[in-house]
Amino acid sequence: MGLRERKKAKTMTAIQMHAMRLFREQGYKATTVEQIADAAEISPSTFFRYFATKEDVVITDNYDPLLITAFENQPPHLSPLQAIRGAMISEVAGTPEDELEMARERNQLIMMVPELRAAMLNNLTQMMQLIAEMVAKRIGSKPDDIAVRTFAGAIIGVNISVMLYCADHPDANFATVLDAALTKLEDGLPL
Q1: Most exposed of 13, 36, 81, 125 (fewest Cβ within 10 Å)?
Q2: What does the pLDDT look like over 13-61, one tens digit per residue?
Q3: At CA 43, angle to CA 42 and CA 49, rounded to 5?
Q4: Structure confidence at residue 177 (pLDDT)
Q5: Can you say whether residue 189 is alpha, beta or left, with left for phi > 0 and alpha for psi between -120 and 50 degrees?
Q6: 10, 27, 111, 152 from 24: Cα distances, Å
Q7: Buried b (16+ CB within 10 A) or exposed e, 110-132
Q8: Distance (Å, rounded) from C-alpha 79 to C-alpha 99?
């Protein structure tokens, strides 16, 4: 990452950290974009250069490029499910503890606030498309193939179940729960 990208990522993280602090102190609905911008020592217009809406300050992360790289680096002999599992687990395992704590807090907020859950649906739909594109490229198919889309949808379903579980069990280790859930999927979902 170049200097400009690092500075942008640092500013984005600072805005999110101040926003999460304000949400803890005042509640999500009572916190305004102006208050977040003031706490982060930026203007509201700068806030909107980083986040289109207040919901986006909670929903947005920088993990997609990392997931793509981790997926592409998985050994070619792995099945698509094994490769996506390896990529997701390696990315969560490689995330610093302070970032994981912020992700846990964001996840709990998303599950508690209806507006954030709705915004997250759009984010998950985009992630489903990203997974479909990665898998299609790996297997020589098309992202709109129904089998590829179904596979990507199953992965998103696992993510939703893990997010809900971890929101209800804040002490749960996200990587461990995600790994167990993806293993269940790989085993054919025995109950």
Answers
A1: 125
A2: 899 999 999 999 999 999 999 999 999 999 999 999 999 999 999 998 8
A3: 90
A4: 93
A5: left
A6: 21, 6, 15, 33
A7: bbebeebeebbeebbeebbebbb
A8: 29
Domain at 1-53, CATH from 3.40.50.11810, 1.10.10.60, 3.40.1190.20, 1.10.8.60: 1.10.10.60
Fold of 61-186: Tetracycline Repressor; domain 2 (1.10.357)
Give tens-digit pLDDT for 123-158. Answer: 899 999 999 999 999 999 999 999 999 999 999 999
Q: What is the DSSP letter of 190?
A: -
The label of the residue with tokens 């749960």 reads: 172
CA angle 179, 180, 182 (to 5 degrees): 65
Buried b (16+ CB within 10 A) or exposed e, 76-109: eeeebbebbbbbbbbbbeebeeeeeebbbbbbeb
Q: Tokens 């479909």: give the residue.
A: 132
Contact criterion met (CB below 8 Å) for 84 and 135: yes
pLDDT (tens digit per residue) in 76-125: 999 999 999 999 998 888 778 888 888 888 888 998 899 898 889 888 99
